[in-house]
Amino acid sequence: MDTSNLKNKLAYKFIKNQIKKTDKTGNLEKFKPKLIEHVGILADLNLFNTYDFTDKLAEGLGLEHKDLKVMLFRNTKEEDKAKTYDIISHKDFGFYGNIKGESLRSFVDTEFDILINYCHVDHILSQVASFRSSAALKVSFKNEEFDFYNILLDIEENKIDTFNNELTKYLKILNFIE
Fold first, then answer.
1. What fold, for 4-9+34-173?
2. b/e map of 77-102 (b: 16 or more CB within 10 Å)?
């Protein structure tokens, strides 16, 4: 029995309720400005099967590729070319946004300096993973509905290089990268 639609609906309800409860100023107290050294990345497997942008991102941030931790979402049973990255799916989530998978649990518990969510804004499980993440700074594409991110960039979701260039520019201005 496929429970993915039910999980999505319950996860959406969970995250909306949590956002209502969250004090908007609390997000900033957790973040202490410092140079970015460790980056968490959430992305859709389909994106990585067509274009692995992590080398360019690492270069733009002045980091080594090993400083990036990538978690890919598999929405279907598609073939994956991204064997070097952790891959998760609906099975790693329980109801109401609970996390069941060990690799996903480890990912959201890691205190990244920055978490970048490249998933489509309608991908509710990536929003849950972002919300539950212990990352100090959270970044995504512009999203009217989920306002728990620290930085939202108003760029088309298929313009990954433009997104990364803009993000790099802002992080340099804020002195988070050199």
1. Rossmann fold (3.40.50)
2. eeeeebeebebbbbebbeeebebebe
Q: How far is CA 28 from CA 32, 117, 167, in A?
A: 8, 19, 18
Q: How far apart are CA 161 and CA 97, in angstroms?
A: 30
Task: Convert 18-47 to b/e letters by CB count within 10 Å (16 or more is b).
Answer: eeeeeeeeebeeeeeeeebebbbbbbbbbb
Q: Output the pTM of the full model.
A: 0.83
> Tokens standing for 126?
């990536």
Domain ranges of the chain: 4-9+34-173
3-state secondary structure of 91: helix
Give residue-wise pLDDT tens across range 153-166.
Answer: 999 888 999 999 99
